UniProtKB/TrEMBL annotation:
InterPro entries: SecYEG/CpoB_TPR, TPR-like_helical_dom_sf, TPR_rpt
Name of this protein: Zn-dependent protease, contains TPR repeats
Keyword Transmembrane appears in the UniProt entry: yes
MF (Gene Ontology): peptidase activity
Bilayer-spanning residue ranges: 27-48
Top-level taxon in the UniProt lineage: Bacteria
Ranges where the Ancillary SecYEG translocon subunit/Cell division coordinator CpoB TPR domain occurs: 107-175
Keywords, ordered alphabetically: Hydrolase, Membrane, Protease, Transmembrane, Transmembrane helix
GO biological process, one term: proteolysis
Length: 225
């Protein structure tokens, strides 16, 4: 802006005066908005402290009993609960906004998979969410297993490869890649199968799977001829 374009003192005073008059005229409205914002912030804090936190704690207590039944392979009790304790199905529904409700979906998915209810298992596993590198990739891998059982090989490959990528460690990734390689073979996609097996051998050479994948590589190379 040039000096000629700069407002003079009189103009500045007029602008300031108009601003003051606007504030005075609308002070009630502005105050209402400010108070509303304060009330919203206070409400959120109160909700977190007095509603969400106690709810999460209660959900964790309920989940403990269901987890115990799950670990003991008492699947019906884990799913449906008892007279005194909620089961995983009810916890997932009643406490859906809590970590325990989220984790319940993973447990339910595992149980349904073991029961051979692959579609139901898949739907439950899809409801689970996490971002760390152990549980989340393991659940993604189980989704892949569901897809295999449901005869959806392309979806299975995507899940196995995603699990391997998300985990990016020797504890989980090699097995996920091995599963992906097997599915590639079932589709007679030997190029991608070979590429997948070689990744295990080269990138995860310390993993147990790396010791056995050599046989897979030899087999696929012979099938390509």
């Amino acid at each position: 802006m040039s000096k000629k374009e700069l407002p003079n003192d009189k103009v500045i005073e007029e602008i300031a005066s108009k601003s003051e008059r606007y504030v005075e005229k609308n002070i009630s409205k502005i105050l209402v908005v400010v108070l509303a914002l304060i009330a919203i912030v206070a409400g959120v804090f109160a909700y977190l402290q007095f509603v969400k936190k106690p709810k999460a704690e209660k959900a964790a207590t309920e989940l403990y009993m269901a987890e115990s039944a799950f670990m003991e392979e008492r699947d019906s009790l884990a799913l449906n609960g008892s007279t005194n304790n909620l089961g995983l199905l009810e916890i997932a529904k009643k406490y859906s906004s809590t970590p325990s409700g989220n984790l319940s979906h993973a447990y339910i998915g595992i149980i349904y998979y073991d029961m051979g209810k692959y579609e139901e298992a898949l739907q439950e596993l899809k409801k689970f969410s996490a971002s760390e590198k152990i549980v989340s990739p393991s659940i993604e891998r189980l989704k892949g297993d569901c897809y295999v059982q449901l005869d959806k090989p392309q979806e299975a490959i995507k899940s196995f490869e995603k699990a391997a990528k998300d985990a990016s460690n020797e504890a989980i990734s090699p097995l996920c890649l091995l599963k992906a390689g097997r599915v590639y073979e079932s589709l007679k996609d030997y190029d991608n199968a070979l590429k997948t097996y070689q990744t295990i051998k080269e990138k995860y050479y310390m993993a147990p799977e790396a010791n056995t994948v050599a046989a897979d590589i030899i087999r696929v190379e012979s099938l390509k001829k």
